Amino acid sequence: MMLHGRVAEAAEIARVLATAAAGHGTALVIRGEAGIGKSALLDHVARSASHMRVLRAGCVESEAGMPYAALHLLLRPALDRIDGLPEPQAAALRAAFGLSGTVVPDQRLVGYAITTLLSRLATERPLVCLIDDAHGLDRESAGALALAARRLHTEAAAMVFAADDECPGFPATGLRELRLERLDGNAARELLARCPSELSAHTRERILDESDGNPMALLELAAALSPRQRFGHLPPEVIGLGALPVRGDAYAPFTSRIGRLPPSTRTLLGAVAADGRGELTVILHAAHSLGTSIDDLAVAERARLVVVADGRVGFRHPLIRPAAYHGVTITSRVVAHTALAQAYEAFGDEPASVWHRAAAATGPDERVAEHLEQLAECRPADHGRSVAAAAYQCAAELSSSMPNRGRRLAAAAVAASASGDLRRAAALADQALSMTGDDGVLARLAMIRAAAEAEAGLLRDAAWILLQGAAVVAEAAPDLAAAMLMTAARHAWACDYREALGLAATRVAVLRTSDTVRVCAAGIRGLAGLAGHDAARGMASLRRMILAAADGRPSLPIEVRLHVAEAALLVGDDGTARDLLTRLVATCRAQGRDDVLPHVLGLLAQAQLFLGLHQEARISGEQALEIARRTGIRQLPGQVHATLSRIAAVEGDEENSRDLAQRALSEGPTSIRQWAVGSRALLDLGLGRAEEAMERLSEDAPGWRTVVGPALLADTVEACARSGHRSAARVPLERLDEAATHSGTEWIRAVALRCHAMTSDDGAAGDLFAQAVFLHRQAPTRPFEQARTELAYGEWLRRSRRRTDARVYLRSALGIFDRIGAAPWTDRARAELRATGESRPQPRGEEVGGLATLTAQERMVTQLAATGLSNQEIAVRMSISPRTVGYHLYKAYPKLGITKRIELARLDLAASA
């Protein structure tokens, strides 16, 4: 079993075991709240101690009053060694375990006997004793074990105890302690991802929020959900009202503690649990309506169930809240929500009041449903698409008529889709389908269902759903129909579904014309042309599509603008793609479109990679991955990791490139294979392993009709040429020539000329290299490819004894390689320069100050902060929490050598933000 978020703790355990194995006895007490992972860490100790003898015991509640019961459990495998101890110690243990006598022996003598017994066992094989739930041990066992633990000095033995914070029953005086804190967000997400049930992003975020980093609470919350709840059906709790259901035995210890409180305190505690915000002034206002007071809150505080600080009330453990909420009757919960609704209304917080009135509703209530609908519609940017979806969904539940219910469910599906939660959106769309007859609504639902099918990898089904949905609105909403047909064509192109491509082309041609229809028609014709092996027509149509939307056309639907950017990458127009995608990122963030934003960022990372902007590409890629993890998008991470693996390959980071390529292969669709294999081959080329690169690429010869296709073809030709297999370069070179002919892109033509030069006789190579360099410098859009061409030309010139001429191109190549961080290529260019007689040192470029030491997220945050944005504004821009922004700044300041935010301005970071 894998530990999550416990790297430091695992390292400490390794030190404890190593110390014991080296003959230096040691003891450790692991402390933390209930469910924090103490037992899991003891399991990790047991697994890690495979070379040691392991004795393990814990508290048995029914035996907690029996003297030495826990000690007997621990030493049971070694009872046959008791007779070999000195007689007073042997007699003490026999009496402790009921083997002789009736008098309970002295605790100190038993402790000394344990020390002797463990010492003798450790001489045979290093020993580790694991004692779980030490706070619940019988008093005699706890005292004797603690005494023995303090006397392990020269023995090859370790004792590791686990004890709860809330139960100070274990006397650990003099023993070293290790405190387990709650998991951070990433570790909690990783743990939740291991749960067998598929969860919607909405449900996952609610579990993460309510469990607050406690592993047991997280797993219990996930396990107790019904199928509908796993798919996101959680109104009105989505905003934190009430508490998620948990299996009763999980919070039973807290239920018993709550049950001992006075009735009025239990009532107020239920209201605190119902609220979710914990604002003290609101709680006290509601308390008055409930017939309770601040004194009841003080009782709960003294019982160590709640903590009151900074004007807020919070629970000491995540499972106390469901115990308090579900431990009272439904009538009590309704009364609590009603009192809270009145309190929030008195404080002027109408949205919170509406939510509590919804939670208090016991049947259809059209008035509350209308208020929820208004809440979702009036300020979606403030509330977030996910909360808007919850408001629509809750409004649908409270609707008094079927048409209203269907309309609101459809709106919930659209909002959930825009938030990126396709699993939840699809479930809502399926519910709404039978409740609406509106063609426009049906088309929107078709888009959502198709997106869910595409996310599941069922591209043919997605294309067909969109074709059917577009037909419904072709007359009334031609722009919507065109956008749907464009997306259908994109899916059909990706899975080679030519019939669907042809149908999309036919249908878009008869739509009423507009900017959107013209752009989509050109794009569909382009993809259909490429699929039908009419590359000239296909590429020409794609270029017309790009030209028609090159200014970003804010009037075009977001999905269509994304397809235009994809087309720009496909024809090799990286600069236009970058400009389109940069504008689209801002649009998606402004509109809260988390369904599209990670895909936009993933494509932007590709464009930035091709333009040599590696650090920016990493930032875009990491942001895409973060949103994908949060929203549950499964198909995108493979593509992003493939992009990042190529960056690592260019830079010569072998281990990282290999790991990222492997992740891409395991996470992404089969189309990712070209990227992953190409990254490994490019790394081989950079490190001078041409033979290995050729073997990788020849296993699956790439085509050119993909974003990375021309570059991989060039790599294949170079690998063949440098390994002495020029004849093997013929087919990839023909394909590269086809790309150069039809793409209309200068850098592809230049790369094709370079490849011809590398496979030609020396008599023709010089002119070909010179033409290639000329084309690169006319349109310098792919600096890495330009530098490779200049390096190859410089190598050829040096071999032709034209050293002075060679230096010109080698210096240029070195400068580009150095700037983009292509370390192995930099080394090759520097070596070639030395071979020409170049004697001047050529140091590697370094970023100013500590900027190079920042992670991609830290760099992005500091750059945005340097522009004057607040933490809240940066959080919105990067789709992270304000707390995470503050954390990144806290980590970045020491690296940059500053202590205040105002000092960021003098570092000139804002220029590249």
Features:
913 residues, mainly alpha, Rossmann fold, 8 domains, five-stranded parallel beta sheet, two-stranded antiparallel sheet
Structure description:
By secondary structure, the chain is mainly alpha-helical. It has eight domains: 7-179, P-loop containing nucleotide triphosphate hydrolases (Rossmann fold, 3-Layer(aba) Sandwich), CATH 3.40.50; 183-234; 240-349; 361-436, Alpha Horseshoe (Serine Threonine Protein Phosphatase 5, Tetratricopeptide repeat); 439-545; 634-731, Serine Threonine Protein Phosphatase 5, Tetratricopeptide repeat; 744-837, Serine Threonine Protein Phosphatase 5, Tetratricopeptide repeat, CATH 1.25.40; 851-912, Orthogonal Bundle (Arc Repressor Mutant, subunit A). 64% of the residues lie in helices and 4% in strands. The chain is built from 46 helices and seven strands. Helix 25 packs antiparallel against helix 26 (498-508). The longest helix has 18 residues, at 107-124. The two termini are 42 Å apart.
